[in-house]
Acyl-CoA thioesterase (Campylobacter californiensis), 130 residues
Amino acid sequence: MKEFIYKTTVPPQAIDMHGHMNNTYYFILMQEAAFAHSNTVGDTIEAQKERNGVWLITTNEASYIAPVKLGDKIEIYTWTQALKRASSVRFFEFKKDGEIFATAKTCFVYFDPQKSRPKAIPQEILKLYE
């Protein structure tokens, strides 16, 4: 498990009518953190297309513990874990000042876009995230 930390500041477009980060914005940040992590280890969108294996989301879940507000500096800790032959889960811990204010996870299937079906995650891809 190779943990990755994505740092950002809560922007105006993330704020809801209650003055804190909207629950839907967490999913945007999850995607940004996941892409940043994948790009860092070399599992870019371009590389996925070249090897004919892409990640597709099957489920997203989030639990909100405490609110964050406009301008708050936050860190998103993320890591992956292979589940089965063709599936993986990515975990997230959202932190502000070292304290967790939300947790989340995304389940993925490794997918062959030419055959339109799941396929086994290659060992070399699993090693990128170890």
